[in-house]
């Protein structure tokens, strides 16, 4: 089970220091927001399939939106990136055995 937790963060300073003959230091303010990764998508559905293509669609889950999804096909670890909630994978070898991992 994936459990979402409250976001934390705040204002911090990033400091770089070096000592040669003298001490040199530089700093800059940064804002950091720590969040949990998005939850696994739900309702993965095969919309269409042919001998050489596959059209997948899914629904996001949870309150934290995903910027993009990566669909990995096994064997071979070929990756396809989807910035929406669906992906069309084409130019597959006929009769390939695919296991999509989201």
Q: What does this protein structure show overall?
A:
- With 102 residues, the protein is an all-beta fold.
- The protein has strands spanning 8-19, 23-34, 42-49, 54-59, 69-74, 78-82, 86-89, 99-101.
- The chain has a three-stranded antiparallel beta sheet, with no helix packed on it. A three-stranded antiparallel beta sheet has the order 6-5-8, with no helix packed on it.
- A hairpin with a 3-residue loop joins strand 5 (69-74) and strand 6.
- The model is unreliable at 1-7 (pLDDT under 50).
Distance between the termini: 15 Å
Q: What order do the helices and strands follow? A: EEEEEEEE
State which percent range the strand residues make up: over 45%
Residue share in helices? under 10%
Give the helix/strand class. Answer: mainly beta
Strand order of the largest sheet: 3-4-7
Task: Offer a concise description of the structure.
This protein is mostly beta strands. The chain has strands spanning 8-19, 23-34, 42-49, 54-59, 69-74, 78-82, 86-89, 99-101. The protein starts with 7 loop residues before the first strand and ends with a strand.
Question: Which features does this protein show?
Answer:
mainly beta; three-stranded antiparallel sheet; 102 residues; single chain; disordered N terminus
Layout of helices and strands:
Elements: E1 8-19, E2 23-34, E3 42-49, E4 54-59, E5 69-74, E6 78-82, E7 86-89, E8 99-101
Antiparallel strand pairs: 1-2, 3-4, 4-7, 5-6, 5-8
């Amino acid at each position: 089970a994936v459990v979402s937790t409250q976001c934390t963060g705040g204002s911090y300073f990033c400091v770089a220091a070096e000592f040669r003959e003298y001490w040199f230091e530089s700093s800059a303010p940064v804002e950091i927001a720590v969040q949990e990764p998005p939850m696994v998508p739900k309702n993965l559905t095969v919309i269409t399939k042919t001998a050489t293509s596959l059209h997948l669609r899914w629904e996001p889950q949870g309150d934290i939106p995903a910027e993009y999804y990566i669909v990995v096909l096994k064997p071979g670890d070929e990756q396809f990136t989807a910035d929406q909630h669906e992906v069309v994978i084409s130019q597959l070898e006929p009769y390939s055995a695919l296991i999509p991992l989201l």
